[in-house]
Design brief:
The chain has about 300 residues and is an all-alpha fold. The chain is built from 14 helices and no strands.
Length: about 300
């Protein structure tokens, strides 16, 4: 831990003590070891969020969006297209990055292979895919065994199947349907923001709920996708709660923190408001809080870095 992190860690420890003594007890960190492990996860989570926000301010080479090049990066490519004014392609690339994920071993290879049609010519860009999602499904079915890499950790149970109702083909077709129903990505966000009367929290919530029509996109996938388009500046939205009711790891972490046991079902209805309250006290957003809680509950007394 560098000097800046050490200072931040002490500030967070002090804030947690004040919160626990003055607002709500935190039995999950009733020992110095547990408190330090939780603080370390908070710092790690904040670093991940800040990293994306930092790259969103930097210059991005057009080659990042070229799947024929090994340095292809769908998130940096999204920034490139955003700066060109192509929000539709930018949000599509974020979706592909979320669905396929980044493998620790293979990086973005799976996204790169699919987006680049395995080098067969052209790309499965938004224009092409949204115009004919059935053709995409057929291509996936034909080429599924040739696609390299692996799904990322949050998507490790997904399938490359193009025709089944649980495979990538269905995911893509239902995503296209969700977006086109609103008239495109830009209108999708604009409509949510309008219905939320310009409030980023309710706008996020409206998109989160409506995205349930996308196959195989549960709580984690929706949260990951929507927070990423926010961090990249593609949508002025921000989660005002961590959606604990449909969470697994974050809910266990919140139960452990606030109730001292990871399986306290009676506390579920309070976890969103308690987590938001604590996050506000620590000056941390819901992305940092839900990520830290999820990782901390895996090893409450000893800090262990968990990366996808």
């Amino acid at each position: 831990m560098n000097k800046a992190d050490a200072v931040a860690a002490q500030a967070l420890e002090d804030a947690l003590v004040r919160y626990s003594q003055g607002i709500r007890a935190l039995p999950g960190i009733d020992s110095p070891a547990k408190c330090k492990a939780f603080v370390a996860q908070l710092i790690e989570s904040r670093r991940r969020v800040e990293y994306v926000r930092r790259i969103a301010t930097r210059d991005v080479s057009a080659t990042r969006g070229d799947p024929s090049i090994a340095s292809f990066d769908p998130l940096k490519a999204a920034l490139h297209f955003k700066r060109k004014g192509d929000i539709e392609e930018a949000m599509w690339l974020v979706f592909l990055a979320t669905h396929f994920g980044k493998s620790r071993q293979f990086g973005w290879d799976r996204v790169r292979a699919v987006y680049g049609l395995l080098g067969q010519g052209g790309t499965w860009n938004w224009s092409r895919t949204s115009a004919d999602p059935v053709a995409f499904r057929e291509w996936m079915h034909t080429n599924r065994k040739s696609i390299p890499g692996r799904f990322g950790n949050h998507r490790k149970y997904e399938s490359l199947d193009g025709k089944s109702t649980t495979g990538t083909g269905q995911v893509i077709e239902t995503y296209v349907g969700w977006v086109l129903k609103a008239g495109g990505h830009t209108n999708l966000v604009k409509n949510a923001f309008s219905h939320a009367q310009g409030d980023p929290g309710p706008a996020f919530d409206l998109l989160f709920k409506s995205m349930s029509s996308v196959a195989r996109f549960g709580r984690t996938a929706k949260f990951d996708y929507l927070t990423m388009i926010a961090k990249l500046g593609l949508a002025n939205i921000e989660p005002s709660k961590p959606y604990m009711a449909s969470a697994t790891g974050p809910r266990r972490g919140a139960n452990l923190l606030f109730r001292g046991q990871s399986t306290d079902t009676e506390a579920v209805k309070h976890l969103d408001s308690w987590t938001y309250e604590l996050g506000k006290s620590l000056k941390l957003g819901m992305q940092e809080m839900e990520d830290a809680l999820c990782n901390w509950q895996k090893s409450p007394a000893v800090f262990k870095p968990f990366r996808g």
